[in-house]
Amino acid sequence: MNISISTAHNVDIDYTPAGVLDRILATMIDGAVQLGIFLLGIMIFGLLDLPGSSTWYFILLTVIIALYHLVCESVFHGQSLGKLTMHIQVVKLNGKKLTFWDCMLRWIFRLVDISISSGAIAVISIMISKRMQRLGDMAAGTTVIRHEKDVTLKQMSEFEAPEEYQVVFQQASLLSDKDIKIIKEVLREVRKNSNYALLGPLTKKIKEITGIETDMIPLEFVETILKDYSHLANN
Fold first, then answer.
1. In 3-state terms, what secondary structure has residue 143?
2. Does 226 reside within a domain?
3. CB 73 within 8 A of CB 103
4. Does 143 score more than 80 pLDDT?
């Protein structure tokens, strides 16, 4: 089952939703990270031998751990360390950029979805929801999708191939001008909103149209396709 999301440029992209197991494993990894933060905090407190009551220190440490998911998802574009490890990401269903308030809603509902019910409500909600959403996702208009491993996004203002350029994929000629326009629009969307998850579905679509089989990383593949198309179209 795929989830179709429209970008700001009205380009429909099909995503593969993150499975329940992926999300559970990500939550377990995040739990381990939070435990590590707590133990590290205790160790630092012991080493520094801070004066005064330890109560306020423990309250501060508890707040930091409690805010872990909110801070991570709002700063790292819908990913915590657990989600990053599992290659999954929170995205808006309307294709817009994930905001702090979206992350806040998900974080507030986490208390019901996961904390109080030990994750039972979240699992049931994800399994019966059409778009595999927990209650927090429904409130924020988000879902969690699976994507290929992130790569560093390079500057992509120029895709014109030099005269001596050697075409890598001759099948790039099977793409239409409209296809190329969409590819460039999606890449602009990726750069603007730091939504790297778009690269996986975009690569999949290009491969379906051209029949290309390659293990090239998504960003390199898309840039190569644009250069190949430019060179083939002008020669």
1. strand
2. yes
3. yes
4. yes
Q: Is position 42 within any domain? A: yes
pTM over 0.70: no
Last residue of a domain, one of 99, 130, 146: 146
| Domain enclosing residue 229, as ranges | 170-233
92 SS3 class: strand
Query: Where do the H-state alpha helices sit in 49-146?
Result: 55-66, 68-75, 81-86, 100-110, 120-128, 135-140
The reply to whether 154 falls in a domain is: no
Can you give the C-alpha Rg of the chain in angstroms?
Answer: 22
Assess whether 56 and 124 both reside in one domain. yes
- What single-letter amino acid sits at 186? V
Residue 156 in any domain: the answer is no
Residue 50's SS3 state is coil
Is residue 96 over pLDDT 50?
Answer: yes
- Indicate whether 209 and 114 sit together in one domain: no
Same domain membership, residue 20 and residue 131: yes
Each residue's pLDDT tens digit, 100-141 = 999 999 999 999 999 888 889 999 999 898 888 999 999 999
Same domain? 112 vs 186: no
Distance CA 186, CA 145 (A): 17
The pLDDT assigned to 121 comes to: 92
Q: What mean pLDDT do residues 77-89 have?
A: 91
Decide: 133 and 125 in contact? Cβ < 8 Å. Answer: yes
Q: Which bin fits 87, alpha (ψ -120 to 50), beta or left (φ > 0)?
A: left
Distances (CA, A) of 197 to 37, 60, 102, 218: 28, 34, 18, 10
Q: How many residues does the chain have?
A: 235
Whether residue 191 sits in one domain with residue 94: no
